[in-house]
Design brief:
The chain has 248 residues and is α/β, with parallel strands linked by helices. The protein has helices spanning 13-16, 30-45, 59-71, 98-105, 107-115, 152-172, 183-194, 231-242; strands spanning 2-8, 52-55, 79-81, 177-181, 212-216, 222-227. The relative contact order is 0.20. It binds 2-phosphoglyceric acid (2PG). It holds the Pfam family His_Phos_1.
């Protein structure tokens, strides 16, 4: 049996301001820093240890990992960054307030943009400063792979090859792995691992800063998954994420 821990970063400054974030590189809020410390303490108290970490190239995930590893006295472990673990790119919605966007376009449209499997938010133009082609951290990524917007299906398409080619072989080599990523990139992985349908994935929300532990069989098929800590608190936090973009 294999085990892997998936962790969404702690609350970011734009989570706090209720803005669509995507690939915008915002930092953790004060609450997010506390959540990252708590995640590390909880992992340590629960007997977890790691010898390899995978993270996105966004600082809210990187800092969450650093803080959690510091709590576990594991800052020495290899930390492998990939853009493929980034948050789903939110296209032209990046920066907008979620509730105001729902007032303008309606709750149903915003829910489609946030949670449907295959509806892309409005796209950026390549001339827009928010297009990742202007950011040196993506200089080695082929231009055709850099999104102008993404639906969850697009995030699955760029994350799962990385799972198959890089993360899964590490697990099979008995590495103790933590993945620190984002609400929608973790939804992409969970959809794939648990075989969740395109319709049912709409109702899955991932809370910030609560470790999600998967036990996997020898073929890396899930045997179980659980949030560490208080399950009701995790359910409440997930419901709060779902409700972030209501117009009223
Ligand atoms: O703004 C975002 O990038 C994500 C995660 O913070 O938001 P949502 O939960 O609305 O998909």
């Amino acid at each position: 049996m294999y085990k892997i821990v998936l962790l969404r970063h702690g609350e970011s400054t734009w989570n706090k301001e209720n803005r669509f974030t995507g690939w915008t590189d915002v930092d953790l809020s004060e609450k997010g820093i506390v959540e990252a410390h708590d995640a590390g303490k909880l992992l340590k108290e629960s007997g977890f240890t790691f010898d390899l970490a995978y993270i996105s190239v966004l600082k809210r995930a990187i800092r969450t990992l650093w803080i959690a590893l510091d709590e576990m006295d594991l800052m020495w472990i290899p930390q492998v960054r990939s853009w493929r673990l980034n948050e789903r790119h939110y296209g032209a919605l990046q920066g907008l307030n979620k509730a105001e966007t729902a007032q303008e376009y309606g709750d149903a449209q915003v829910k489609l943009w946030r949670r449907s499997y295959s509806t892309q938010p409005p796209a950026l133009l390549k001339t827009d400063d928010r297009w990742p082609g202007h950011d040196p951290r993506y200089a080695d990524v082929p231009e055709d792979d850099l999104p102008l917007t993404e639906c969850l299906k697009d995030t699955v398409a760029r994350f799962i090859p990385y799972w198959e080619e890089t993360i899964a072989p590490s697990l099979k080599a008995s590495r103790k792995v933590i993945v620190v990523a984002h609400g929608n990139s973790i939804r992409a992985l969970v959809k794939y691992l648990d075989g969740i349908s395109d319709d049912d994935i709409v109702d899955l929300n991932i809370p910030t800063g609560i470790p999600l532990v998967y036990e996997l069989d020898e073929h890396l098929k899930p045997i179980s998954h659980t949030y560490l800590g208080d399950p009701e608190a995790a359910a409440r936090a997930a419901a709060a994420v779902a409700n972030q973009a209501k117009a009223t």
